[in-house]
């Protein structure tokens, strides 16, 4: 264990970890509802996969169709390049190598995988002050804060929009016209297909070409290429899903506030609450086989994703 493993700023801490919860609280995976991840519980349909998607190496045309669909869906500037990758996490791990290690500004609290990735490559992570790089998570995880264009103020600026597809009007994608700006997109969260492992980096062509060299060839599977392309072109599904998620987020807030929690913020994919003891709330839910998210930097923050359709009654009973 190195010192970064003990630092709550740079500790690699995630939702999920259901196997650990099962080991401690019992049951099997089918018994549990995992609300720790902020993944859409109503996933996009993947029934249209073909045998060739599994059997053949992905070709250039499949990548081109995916990037064309991404360009349209996110209104990517014409002179920005798009790199598909096996999940946003794979890109987060590599973006620190785009510049010589120096200082990086990452305001807390936020998703701490970014700080861990920069620290692992020799960068000094700081909360404020001038820096050679800056990371903003937009909307922020876990509190849902939205950033402004003026916050992209470092020579290398990483804008993580993993949860921005529920609020597309807030996207800072237009900034990818600027040198040094990289926007990251996650496919798994909004479309509910985290296991597909698909993410995107968007920025100036030279910068994205360097990132492509770091990630290597054949990074995206055939099934991810096909489903990703179809989903990005299905704007009707996206519009209906945003409405549904917003309604369910309001329902979750109403339920939690009735039980004594206070709303801090979040997005319509996850909600952040202030409670008297996050550890006690997590344990109470876990005894009912419902997994939630707590944070190493706060004893009172509890984050919940949206339950599946058949999970609302169980959640209310557990609370």
Biggest sheet: strands side by side, in what order?
Answer: 2-8-7-6-5-3-4
Instruction: Please state the structural category.
Output: alpha/beta
Low-confidence stretches at least 5 residues in length (pLDDT < 50)? 1-6
- What name does CATH use for the topology of the largest domain? Aspartate Aminotransferase, domain 2
Please, what is the CATH homologous superfamily of the largest domain? Type I PLP-dependent aspartate aminotransferase-like (Major domain)
Number of DSSP helical runs = 10
* Number of beta-strand segments: 13
How would you concisely characterize the structure shown here?
The protein has 319 residues and is an alpha/beta fold.
List the helices and strands and how they pair.
Elements: H1 18-25, E1 33-34, H2 51-55, H3 60-74, E2 81-85, H4 88-92, E3 103-106, H5 113-120, E4 124-126, E5 133-137, E6 156-160, E7 181-186, E8 199-203, H6 205-215, H7 222-233, H8 235-258, E9 262-266, E10 270-274, H9 278-287, E11 290-291, E12 293-295, E13 298-305, H10 312-318
Helix pairs in contact: 3-7
């Amino acid at each position: 264990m190195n010192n970064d493993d003990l630092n709550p700023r740079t500790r690699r801490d995630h939702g999920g970890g259901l196997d650990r919860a099962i080991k401690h609280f019992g049951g099997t995976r089918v018994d549990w509802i995992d609300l720790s991840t902020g993944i859409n519980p109503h996933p996009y349909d993947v029934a249209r996969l073909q045998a060739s998607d599994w059997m053949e190496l992905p070709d250039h045309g499949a990548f081109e169709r995916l990037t064309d669909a991404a360009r349209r869906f996110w209104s990517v500037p014409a002179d920005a390049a798009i790199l598909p990758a096996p999940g946003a996490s794979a890109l987060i791990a590599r973006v620190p190598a785009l510049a010589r290690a120096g200082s990086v500004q990452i305001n807390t609290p936020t998703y701490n995988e970014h700080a861990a990735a920069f620290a692992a490559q020799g960068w000094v992570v700081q909360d404020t002050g001038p820096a050679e790089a800056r990371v903003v998570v937009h909307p922020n995880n876990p509190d849902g804060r939205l950033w402004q264009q003026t916050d992209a103020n470092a020579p290398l600026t990483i804008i993580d929009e993993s949860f921005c597809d529920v609020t597309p009007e807030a996207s800072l994608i237009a900034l990818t016209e600027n040198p040094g700006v990289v926007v990251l997109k996650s496919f798994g969260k909004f479309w509910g297909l985290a296991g597909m492992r698909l993410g995107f980096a968007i920025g100036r062509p030279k910068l994205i070409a360097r990132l492509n060299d770091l990630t290597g060839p054949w990074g995206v599977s055939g099934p991810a290429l096909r489903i990703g392309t179809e989903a990005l072109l299905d704007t009707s599904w996206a519009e209906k899903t945003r409405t549904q998620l917003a309604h369910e987020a309001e329902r979750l807030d109403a339920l939690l506030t009735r039980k004594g929690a206070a709303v801090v913020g979040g997005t319509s994919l996850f909600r952040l609450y202030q409670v008297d003891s996050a550890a006690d709330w997590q344990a109470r839910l876990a005894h009912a086989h419902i997994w939630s998210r707590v944070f190493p930097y706060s004893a009172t923050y509890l984050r919940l994703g949206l339950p599946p359709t058949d999970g609302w009654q169980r959640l209310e009973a557990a609370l």
